[in-house]
Every structure is written in C-alpha cells, then in structure tokens.
Amino acid sequence: MGGVVFAVASQSSKLYLNGIVCVARVGVPAGERRRRQRLWVDLTLALDFRKAAEGDDPSRTVDYARVERKVQSVVSARPYRLIEAVAQAVGREILDAFPRIRSLCVRVTKKPKAMPRVSSVTVEMGFGRKK
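The chain above was modelled as a monomer; its predicted structure follows.
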C-alpha cells in the first residue's frame, strides 16, 4: 500500500443485520393477536470491531447468530399490541445481552392485514448505553 496509513474511526463502525424474519402475535385487535404473523427486524449495531477486523478474530466482535436468536426469542416470547413495543423489547434485550454493543437502531416492519392498501408499516427506535 505504499506507506499509506489506514485508520478506522471506531465511531463509524457499524454492523447491519437486515431482514430477520420473525413470527409474532402482534396487533391492537385481540383477533389479530390470535394469529401468528411475520415481522421483519433490521438492526444497526454500533461497536468497535477494529481488533476483530485486524486479527480476523470472531471472538472480538458479536456473534451474529446469537444476536439473531435473541431477536427471535424476544419477538416470539409474548403477544404484543404494538410493533413499537416489539422494537423496544428487542433494543433493551440486545443491549443487555451484548456488552460490546455501544448503541443500536431497531426497525420493525409489519404488513398490516387490517390495512390492505398499505404495503407495510415500520417503526424505528434508537438505544444507547448510559455513560
């Protein structure tokens, strides 16, 4: 690389897990909560994974599969009335379970059966650690 020094800013290190397909009971009307339906969860995780990248060392980052399993577990744990509540539960649980993650953004998308002319509804919530 001809003497060029590369620096990666840890503030810009983000990991994206997109399109996690979950099955949930969610909806304001009780009848809607009786049937399981698909939700799509996207996560943007902010963490410093420079050492993982430098050493090609998976133990210095988060385990993507564990994150995905945690999302699945939270979403299917109980019925929800609002996808906002789903996003909040996922964000809190991910921060609690993965101390390497400094902050994250959770997006939850649903195709509402009660609104046939709407292709999807999405909420987005941000979470961070207290300093």
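Residues 19 and 40 are 5 Å apart (CA to CA).
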